[in-house]
Amino acid sequence: MKAAPVDLKKGEFTADRLRIDTPQPATPEAMTKVLKQLQAHFNWKGKIGIGFPAAIVDGKVKTASNIDKSWIGTPINALFSEATDCKVSVMNDVDVTGLGEMNFGAGKGQKGTVLTVALGTGIGTSLFYKGQLYPNTELGHLQLNGKIAENYAANSVREEEALSWKKWGKRLNKYLLELDKLLWPELIILGGGVSKHYDEYKQYLDPKLSIKPAQLKNHAGIIGAASQFLY
Q: Could you report the per-residue pLDDT of 36-56, keeping only the tens digit for each?
């Protein structure tokens, strides 16, 4: 779990980021305790924007792939607001990453359809049209080559199977072409840690696709979480 104060005019941190390991099990009680530790470190009393690894609908958690199942149905906005005595807004983690890139990074100024694809342990996505977010897309769960796409083309698969950049790049290309066929995005932003290695695999991606690597790198999630309050 990571936090930093953000200047929303510049899209920059105003202090060094603090990171505290996610508790195990990652229950509401345990994660709320860490949130309060992060808040206390910065002596923060203002609004708090959060990116969370789940689908969030009407301020409630709907999924729990990488957190404790007890989160499902939890009114997370209310829980965190009460715990911190601050106004808290929580969104899906890849949605806020997309917000960061749209406001301050590779998607800034783009008015058409923009798709952010975060490649990490799995594949997360966020979709924008005319600058507006369509929340909670789960396009890493599409079927591809008889598998769930993130089990075929995520960065973790590249590492686990020791795939070369060429072999993995071709897998990623198949996935991006499938997204292009479904959504016709005018821009695809590739995020996640693998975005910094873009030059290693960009030659294996179809030139008809308009692709940019994420610009904010590992700051995108925090900056995007804060930028919820721009709207």
A: 999 999 999 999 999 999 999
Quote the CA–CA distance of 224 and 155 in Å, as a whole number.
22
pTM: 0.92
Across 53-63, average pLDDT? 96
The token duo for 24 is 């195990």
| Residue 146 CB neighbour total at 10 angstroms | 7
Give me the CATH topology for the region 2-95+221-230.
Nucleotidyltransferase; domain 5 (3.30.420)
Q: What are phi and psi of 124, to 5 degrees?
A: -110, 155
- Asked whether the beta carbons of 212 and 106 are under 8 A apart, the reply is yes
Q: Is the pLDDT of residue 66 over 90?
A: no
Domain boundaries defined on the chain: 2-95+221-230, 110-214
State the burial class of residue 27 (Cβ atoms within 10 Å of its Cβ: 0-12, 13-18, 19+). middle
Task: Estimate the crossing angle of helix 28-42 against helix 76-84, to 10 degrees.
Answer: 40
Residue 174: in which H helix or E strand, if any?
helix 165-183
**231 or 194, which is more confident?**
194
Closest CA to 13 of 228, 201, 216: 216
- Rg for the chain (alpha carbons), in Å? 18
pLDDT > 90? residue 155? yes
The yes or no reply on domain 110-214 and CATH 3.40.350.10 is: no
Q: Is residue 156 classed as helix, strand or coil in its secondary structure?
A: helix
